[in-house]
Design goal:
heterodimer; A: 468 residues; alpha/beta; Rossmann fold; 2 domains; eight-stranded mixed beta sheet; 8 strands; 10% strand; B: 437 residues; two-stranded antiparallel sheet; 46% helix; globular
Chain lengths: 468, 437
């Protein structure tokens, strides 16, 4: 007999779940004044979304902490640095299309140049799928160095560094690059490094229930409608192929358009950026802008707070948030200083930022067309090496009013919490608000939902989207 | 001539009198029966031979196994647990058996989701090895020496590398460190030759091993006290399998923090453990050593690595800059490499498995956790011809011998060893999988 009880319950949940996020004060999203097109016009690489480089324009003047408070602990989650594309398919698919056309003498001169460059890219990446690049290491080193320079009190003497990474080599190597730089600055640091499936439940949790419900019927329809006018590229086909009728018949225009541009944009992360130039020049600024819009909408639906699928995808990172809170609570109890460094993926950073409602990224809309104008730009959240740092301050280990600020990619960020000392917040306010929010969500899941956060070693590998 | 013979005889006598038999070693220290799961014992040689006259170390080439770890598969813990749990459900366990079941449960929970993870002891092993490397050869680690570190893509290897490098930075923050872990390097860091793999336990090897096992005649009387029904044991328990499974869990415990509180070694007499170890040692020899029975070719599985070591060294000896090349991987690489290089004569071929102990082919000496091979290169000055470069090999930080003229031992001419290795490698026919005459 079919049991419909769970459907009813799910329906109930949806109403419920919108509440915690929408109860937030909506923060103004930071970039609403400028259009993404302007950014792209200035720098085409800006459109790579999750393949974006870590911004180099750090160093905003920091806001002074409340009088007498000094930093003593940093709790961090960082994405690995710049990497190669994670799998061959992304290059091979368009490459094979171009090769097929070439062997049928259907490529134009431009098409042949594109084929050659893509072949070079493919050869360069062979055996390095997903590897951290030199730029990636440099990003991590620079971030670690700034962390120590900006908050030296937290890293004095035998301060502890508790490093945790997912099991993915580029994350472990990112951690290595960061702590190595820290050791250079202060060889006394007491460093422990861990990379264990045991930490996967919070370092890289992808909730099967949430993941499977991300592309709901409503979400898929909205995404299809949004991407339809942004997926084809007749001009590109004319440039590449001698006979457009042949191309129409034999080629998948959408795939070619998407993968060629993606291949071009990824190169900013590798040494190939110095020698590539053909592929990116196949695309107009408008093409690139459309690509960015599509990707942005995809990430909004799959990892953002989109009401199209119930608005609770960010809760995927509820275990991470709890862990951050618990570990901070533990450190606060002690007379110690140091940092917890966690290394993982953009598919964690983005939903965590949305869950926190940082800088207004808890923005909810049914209309994907408004994402750009409202400033919900995923690319600003999770470029390569993107990171969140919770920096904790107190006047002494006895100080009961611990305050903190959050840095998103090393810039002070705002939480949807009232504070008399913003961008600093009272830790007790933060923990009570967010623990309540997590409790509400978990209670709303009932017994059915509790089963889904199984800590199986491979739970993170299924059903993750196009990311990492 | 007489004098020479006397000296040689004296040296041999000295060696023999100092060398314990494996059985004695095991009686003294049952941890040796852990074979490749033995925690790194550290160097037994405290003082190294001084540098050759007027020469200075300038290059170190290294291959190291990751440090202490948990077992890589849950089945390693679950097999003995399940066997005992089933017996328990039938009321067939003695109080000791139930106690062991409880211990296994604690152990497997401790290991849960940490399969293959580096343990704190494993981290410490690599820190200490790095520190000793610097203390013994400080001249190589001066100033802005290049340290090129490569690891397989396995987490415990990368972390081992990180710990080693951090220790080096603590000593000298100026070191110019470059590290990587990429599939691109796997062809030499962790070469897996499928064809050779199939040959390991081919029919003759299997038959030979079975025959050896039959001769070892393991009775498994140690298992009886775990059960209250000897008929049940006879009918349902594969004694050798269960005893080995228990020994392997006992073995891994020395690598974990829990091992300080829980042991399974109380179940084994040194004699039981010795026989089980013998079976394991023979298994490793057949699978990774130059055993006669499967063609004496298994060590060639690491031909890419040896060629790479030679190429890297050729580059380093032709350059004025000091350099350290660190590689991190696995015992299934280190052991055949040691045999291929014929370190301490480990590359010997025999059809008599008793020779293993006589000739000190002891897996726990060669490839425990964090085991490592270090090649230390010496020259007078940067103007030396590469032909004049001397080097020595350390296996697990003890000076080792090579199958070359030994008037300068433990130092050897790099060009001699290079020639020896390349000739050996050139003789190997990859397609035919045999050594050409």
């Amino acid at each position: 007999m079919m049991n419909f009880a769970h459907i009813k319950q799910e329906h109930k949940i949806k109403v419920w779940l919108l509440l915690p996020l929408s109860l937030f004060i909506f923060m103004p999203l930071s970039s609403s004044a400028q259009s993404a097109f302007e950014f792209i016009y200035n720098n085409r690489n800006f459109s790579a979304v999750n393949d974006n480089l870590y911004p180099e324009d750090i160093d905003p003047p920091p806001t002074a902490p409340p009088a007498g408070k000094r930093p003593f602990y940093i709790s961090h989650y960082g994405r690995h640095g710049s990497r190669y594309l994670t799998n061959r398919k992304g290059y091979e698919l368009p490459y094979q299309m171009l090769c097929k056309a070439d062997s049928a003498k259907q490529l134009t001169r431009i098409g042949r140049d594109a084929r050659t460059e893509l072949g070079q890219i493919l050869a360069d990446a062979e055996g390095r799928w997903g590897d951290l690049t030199e730029y990636g290491k440099q990003q991590q080193e620079a971030i670690a160095e700034r962390m120590m320079r900006n908050f030296p009190e937290a890293f004095e003497g035998y301060a502890f560094i508790d490093g945790h990474s997912t099991n993915v080599p580029r994350c472990i190597l990112s951690m290595g690059a960061a702590v190595m730089r820290m050791k250079m600055e202060n060889p006394k640091l007491n460093v422990t490094l861990t990379s264990s499936h045991r930490d996967s439940w919070y370092l890289n949790h992808q909730d099967r229930h949430l993941r499977d419900s991300a592309m709901s019927y409503a979400a898929q329809r909205a995404y299809d409608a949004f991407s339809a006018p942004r997926s084809k590229n007749a001009r590109l086909m004319e440039w590449l192929f001698v006979d457009t009728a042949y191309a129409k018949r034999e080629m998948n225009e959408e795939d070619l358009n998407y993968y060629l541009l993606k291949a071009a944009l990824v190169q900013q992360n590798t040494h190939m950026r110095d020698s590539c130039g053909v592929l990116i020049n196949l695309f107009t600024y408008e093409d690139i802008h459309k690509f960015w819009q599509k990707e942005n909408a995809w990430w909004y639906i799959n990892y953002g707070p989109s009401p199209l699928n119930g608005g609770h995808q960010p809760y995927n990172q509820r275990f991470l948030l709890r862990q951050i809170i618990q570990e901070a609570d533990s450190v606060i109890q002690q007379d110690v200083r140091g940092a917890t460094l966690r290394f993982g993926h953009e598919s964690v950073v983005l939903p965590l930022v949305c869950l926190l409602g940082l800088n207004g990224y808890n923005y909810q809309t049914l209309d994907l067309e408004t994402l750009e104008s409202s400033g919900w730009w995923a690319c600003l959240v999770f470029p390569m090496a993107s990171n969140l740092q919770f920096v904790f301050y107190r006047s002494s280990p006895e100080d009961e009013d611990v305050v903190f600020k959050v840095l998103l990619n090393e810039k002070e960020a705002l939480l949807p919490l009232s504070s008399d000392i913003a961008p600093y917040y009272h830790w007790r306010d933060f923990r009570s608000h967010y623990l309540q929010m997590l409790d509400n969500y978990e209670l709303s899941l009932g017994t059915e939902g509790k089963g889904v956060h199984s800590h199986l070693p491979h739970h993170g590998k299924k059903s993750v989207g196009t990311g990492w | 001539m007489k004098k020479l013979l006397l000296v040689a005889f004296g040296a041999l006598f000295c060696l023999l009198s100092r060398a314990q038999s494996a059985q004695e070693e095991i009686r003294e220290n049952i941890l040796c029966t852990a074979s490749n799961y033995m925690a790194y014992p550290g160097p037994t040689q405290q003082m190294l031979t001084p540098s050759p006259d007027g020469m200075e170390a300038f290059y170190i080439s290294h291959y190291g196994r990751h440090g202490s770890r948990f077992h890589t598969k849950p089945s390693m813990y679950n097999q003995p647990y399940n066997t005992l749990a089933k017996a328990d459900s039938l009321g067939k366990l003695s109080p000791l058996g139930r106690d062991v079941l409880l211990r296994l449960d604690i152990i497997r929970q401790d290991a849960d989701n940490r399969w293959g993870d580096l343990t704190p002891l494993g981290a410490e092993q690599h820190q200490l090895i790095a520190r000793r490397m610097i203390e013994r050869f400080p001249e190589v680690f001066e100033g802005r020496t290049d340290v090129e570190a490569r690891s397989t893509t396995v987490g415990r290897c990368i972390l081992s590398m990180e710990y080693a490098l951090m220790e080096m930075l603590t000593y000298n923050p100026m070191l110019n460190i470059h590290q990587d872990a990429t599939h691109r390097d796997m062809y030499y860091l962790n070469q897996q030759d499928k064809e050779l793999m199939h040959m390991k336990f081919n029919k003759p090897a299997k038959a030979w091993y079975s025959e050896y096992m039959r001769k070892l005649n393991f009775q498994g009387r140690m298992l009886q006290p775990l059960f209250n029904d000897s008929t049940y044991v006879r009918q349902h328990i594969k004694t050798y399998d269960l005893a080995l499974q228990l020994l392997l869990v006992a073995a891994i415990m020395q690598n974990t923090e829990l091992g300080e509180m829980v042991t399974l070694y109380d179940l084994f007499t040194p004699e039981d453990a010795y026989i089980l170890w013998k079976a394991g040692n023979a298994y490793w020899y057949i699978g990774w050593g130059a055993a006669d029975v499967n063609g004496a070719i298994q060590p060639y599985s690491q031909r890419n690595l040896l060629r790479r070591i030679i190429e890297d060294a050729d580059k380093a000896v032709s350059q004025p800059k000091k350099r350290v090349e660190l590689r991190f991987g696995h015992e299934t690489v280190l052991l055949p490499l040691a045999c291929l290089m014929n370190i301490n004569g480990y590359g010997f071929t025999t059809h008599d498995l008793e020779q293993l102990e006589i000739r000190r082919w002891l897996n726990y000496r060669i490839c425990p956790m964090a085991s490592n091979i270090q090649l230390i290169f010496y020259r007078h000055s940067v103007n030396d011809s590469p032909d004049d470069v001397l080097f020595k090999v350390l296996l697990n930080e003890n000076e080792a011998t090579l199958p070359l003229p030994d008037e300068m031992a433990p130092y050897y001419r790099w060009k001699d060893f290079r020639k020896y290795c390349l000739e050996k490698l050139d003789k190997y026919d990859e397609k035919e999988m045999k050594v050409k005459n």
